């Protein structure tokens, strides 16, 4: 009899091992893709969040547009939160921190919109953007990278340096009272 002409098959154990290796490689590729997507999305959301914090601190902030952008950031971070069990720890912590910071800003923005729509009792307070203390609380939320944190701190410092100090405002108010001017003017910080 002549030998069979055809391809020889590998033993069953080798075929099973190859299938297991292929499945493990596919799972590792999917895990890496999820982490890469989450890292890129988290960085994008963090940049948008940083811009929103900066915009919220301005006097003429468009609160409705800010609320819409914040809702988009919240949704983006919520979507990443679905995969938190698969994310690397540093990515998971960044997503959680950014989500907490984003939710705080969204809540404060919505409160400010509600206050303006209700025609709050103190119109000056309703027109004020997020103050320095609120911005500091957002910074301490933990979701920002060190570089983003430094940029926001630089914005805070530049705001403080461009605004007269409290002692200067007090002495100016005392001077105007002493001259009988009677007009009390206070500087509104853009925070």
TrEMBL record:
Q: Where is the composition biased (Acidic residues)?
A: 169-178
According to the record, the residues making up region (Disordered) are 102-191
- One Pfam family name from the record? DUF6466
Q: Which UniProt keywords apply?
A: Membrane, Transmembrane, Transmembrane helix
Q: Does the keyword Membrane apply?
A: yes
Q: Where is the composition biased (Low complexity)?
A: 116-128, 155-168
**Source species, domain of life:** Bacteria
Q: Where does the chain cross the membrane?
A: 12-34
Name this protein carries in UniProt: Cell surface protein
Q: Which organism is it from?
A: Bifidobacterium pullorum subsp. gallinarum
